[in-house]
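Lecture notes, part 5. Sequence design as translation. It can be helpful to think of inverse folding as translation between two languages: the language of shapes and the language of residues. The source text, in C-alpha cells, appears below.
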C-alpha cells in the first residue's frame, strides 16, 4: 500500500508544481497591467516578504530535502492512505513551487485576489487544501 501512496504523493507533487509554475508564468505575462475588480480579481504581485526561505539557496534546498524525507515518514504513519499521499503531495508541491520562485526570482509571484485576503497563488492554495486532507487522513 505504501508504494501506491508514494506514487500518488509524487504525482500530486508534480501536478501541483507544474500547474503552479505555468500559472505564475501566464500571470507574469498577462497581468502586467495590474488589473483589479470585484470579489475575485487577478493582480500581479511580486511577494518579496521574507517568508520562510529568505536564506541562502543551498540551505533552502537542504531544508526542502528534509521536508520531503519527513513527508515520506508521515505517509508511513498514516497507514499508506491515498488521501494522506494527496495531502502530503499538495503540501510539498506547494512549498516547492514557492521555493522555486524564491530561489530563481527572489520573490514569489502572487496573482489571485479574493475579497480582502492578501494576494496568493496556486502553490498557496495547495498548501491550504493540504491541511484538512492531512487531518482527515489521520482521523
Amino acid at each position: 500500500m505504501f508504494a501506491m501512496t508514494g506514487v500518488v504523493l509524487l504525482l500530486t507533487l508534480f501536478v501541483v508544481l507544474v500547474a503552479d509554475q505555468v500559472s505564475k508564468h501566464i500571470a507574469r505575462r498577462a497581468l502586467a497591467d495590474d488589473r483589479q475588480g470585484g470579489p475575485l480579481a487577478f493582480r500581479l504581485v511580486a511577494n518579496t516578504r521574507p517568508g520562510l526561505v529568505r536564506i541562502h539557496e543551498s540551505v533552502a534546498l537542504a531544508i526542502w530535502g528534509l521536508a520531503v524525507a519527513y513527508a515520506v515518514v508521515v505517509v508511513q504513519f498514516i497507514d499508506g492512505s491515498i488521501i494522506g499521499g494527496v495531502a502530503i503531495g499538495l503540501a510539498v508541491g506547494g512549498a516547492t513551487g514557492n521555493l522555486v520562485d524564491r530561489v530563481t526570482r527572489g520573490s514569489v509571484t502572487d496573482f489571485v485576489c479574493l475579497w480582502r485576503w492578501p494576494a496568493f497563488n496556486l502553490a498557496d492554495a495547495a498548501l491550504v487544501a493540504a491541511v484538512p486532507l492531512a487531518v482527515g487522513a489521520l482521523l
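The translated text above is only one of many valid answers, since several sequences can fold into similar shapes. Strands lie at 40-47, 108-114.
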